[in-house]
Design a protein that fits this description.
This protein is an alpha/beta fold and 228 residues long. The protein has two domains: 120 residues, Response regulator (Rossmann fold), CATH 3.40.50; 101 residues, Arc Repressor Mutant, subunit A (Orthogonal Bundle). 41% of the residues lie in helices and 23% in strands. The chain is built from eight helices and 13 strands. A hairpin with a 4-residue loop joins strand 8 and strand 9.
């Protein structure tokens, strides 16, 4: 079940989408304009947002721009216009999909569920009651907010860069990550050191992970992948 925010100044359209979303087991909240949507997003955690463009008080573009300052929740933008400019602006602001009115309820639900499946598949970790991002697999547990790693229930002491490297790989689990990107993201874009630094740090990280070192796969000629 997902928690969905539907923001549109047309009450009838909100009702139609809500009816189908609730039928599929989702929880729905509604907003009639961009200002209300921002307020609700600050007060709640949503799995996906349906945002209309043309609304009173604050338009959808402005609302998305503000929401993106504090949330990366997937957003589907609705519009009665299909101009390329609107689509480009929406995607530049960080929306995930763009649907032109009129649309069928079946279409919007298919798009909603497709995004929810994609997000769920890419989630590297869960968040506990204290807001800590936790990753667990077999006997490996990583608290990415507290900077703690446990192997079979025992906390291991790692160097700062080992934590950074491990957490970066976890956030990109099941993705082949090129060496250049790892160096840029973990060491900084302007790092000019020998790239053997990465190999050395990876060797240390694998040693720290002990029996779970095999989660990190070396991709010859490319980089690494964390199989999680």
């Amino acid at each position: 079940m997902a928690k969905i925010l539907i923001c549109d100044d047309e009450a009838g359209l909100r009702a139609v989408i809500k009816r189908y979303a609730v039928f599929e087991g989702h929880e729905v909240m509604e907003a009639g304009d961009g200002m209300e949507a921002i307020r609700l997003c600050r007060e709640n955690t949503f799995d996906i947002i349906i945002m209309d463009i043309m609304m009173p008080e604050l338009d959808g573009f402005s609302a998305v721009k503000e929401i993106r300052k504090f949330s990366d929740t997937p957003i589907i933008m609705l519009s009665a216009r299909g101009e390329e400019y609107d689509k480009v602006l929406g995607f530049e602001l960080g929306i995930d999909d763009y649907v032109v009115k009129p649309f069928s309820s079946k279409e919007i639900m298919l798009r909603i569920n497709a995004i929810l499946r994609r997000v769920e598949k890419s989630k590297p970790a869960r968040t506990n009651e204290e807001g800590h991002v936790i990753y667990e697999k077999d006997g490996l547990k990583a608290d990415m907010k507290a900077y703690k790693v446990f192997i079979d229930g025992v906390e291991v002491d790692m160097a700062p860069k080992e934590y950074d490297l491990l957490f970066f790989l976890i956030r990109n689990k099941n993705i082949a990550v090129p060496r250049e990107r790892i160096m840029a993201e973990v060491w900084g874009f302007y790092y000019f050191g020998d790239d053997r630094t990465l190999d050395t740090q990876m060797k240390l990280l694998r040693k720290s992970l002990g029996p779970y070192a095999h989660f990190i796969k070396t991709l010859r000629g490319l980089g690494y992948r964390f199989d999680g």
